[in-house]
């Protein structure tokens, strides 16, 4: 089983390209048999799609996807199907194909504890970065979260949610 990266997307693009953009995402295991090019290992959560026309002909699109292993999957273009045809469009080519004006994607991998960020602005190169994060979990209020780097002064011995002192790991 792969691990999964949950990703929140925010995209500004021409309204008449919204459907085309969304069609590059997989929706089920067999979707790739039915379509032309697609984003490798990346499944859209269809209920999460939200489109708002912010000005004439321009829309703001938000949605959530799940990528197997890492957001690195969506840069993959070289995978070939059994006919030797590469059917994966990399994200940058997708952005150009759909005249994307700006795009951000924030990925969160809660099991192996890393985050990934993608930023794209029309006419510039796509930027990708990732960071490891340290999770915390409170036994009392059952809240989970991550310590943020900018909170380096935070007291990591108490729960940020309910302020209960974390139990110390017992030494044998
Ligand atoms: Zn708590």
User: Spans of 5+ residues with little confidence (pLDDT < 50)?
Assistant: none
Largest beta sheet: what is the strand line-up? 2-3-1-4-5-6
- Cα shape: globular
- Output mean pLDDT: 87
| Backbone CA Rg | 19 Å
What is the total number of structural domains?
A: 2
Report the total helices.
Answer: 3
Distance between the termini: 33 Å
Give the ordered list of helices and strands.
EHHEEHEEEEE
> How much of the sequence is in beta strands?
35-45%
Distinct ligand kinds: zinc ion
The class by helix and strand makeup works out as: mainly beta
Q: Can you count the beta strands? A: 8
Biggest pleated sheet? 6 strands, antiparallel
Helix content: under 10%
Give your account of this protein's structure.
It is built from three helices and eight strands; from the N terminus they run βααββαβββββ. The chain is mainly beta and 172 residues long. Strands 2-3-1-4-5-6 form a six-stranded antiparallel beta sheet, with no helix packed on it. Zinc ion (ZN) is lined by residues 138, 140-141, 143, 159, 161-162, 164.
Q: In a nutshell, what does this entry contain?
A:
With 172 residues, the chain is mostly beta strands.
Descriptors:
2 domains, 172 residues, mainly beta, binds zinc ion, globular, two-stranded antiparallel ribbon
Record the SSE blueprint.
Layout: E1 4-14, H1 18-22, H2 31-34, E2 42-55, E3 58-68, H3 91-97, E4 102-109, E5 114-121, E6 127-132, E7 134-137, E8 144-147
Antiparallel strand pairs: 1-3, 1-4, 2-3, 4-5, 5-6, 7-8
The structure holds zinc ion.
């Amino acid at each position: 089983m792969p691990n999964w990266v949950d990703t929140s997307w925010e995209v500004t693009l021409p309204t008449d390209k919204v459907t085309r953009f969304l069609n590059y995402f997989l929706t089920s295991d067999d979707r790739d048999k039915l379509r032309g090019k697609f984003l490798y290992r990346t499944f859209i959560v269809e209920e999460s799609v939200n489109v708002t026309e912010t000005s004439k002909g321009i829309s703001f699109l938000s949605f959530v996807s799940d990528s197997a292993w890492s957001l690195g999957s969506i840069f993959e273009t070289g995978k070939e199907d059994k006919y030797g045809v590469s059917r994966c469009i990399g994200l940058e080519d997708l952005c150009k194909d759909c005249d994307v004006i700006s795009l951000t994607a924030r990925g969160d991998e809660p099991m192996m504890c890393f985050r990934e960020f993608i930023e794209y602005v029309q006419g510039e190169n796509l930027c990708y970065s990732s960071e490891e994060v340290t999770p915390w979990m409170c036994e009392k209020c059952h809240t989970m979260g991550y310590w943020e780097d900018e909170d380096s002064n935070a007291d990591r011995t108490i729960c940020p949610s309910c302020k209960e002192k974390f139990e110390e790991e017992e030494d044998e």
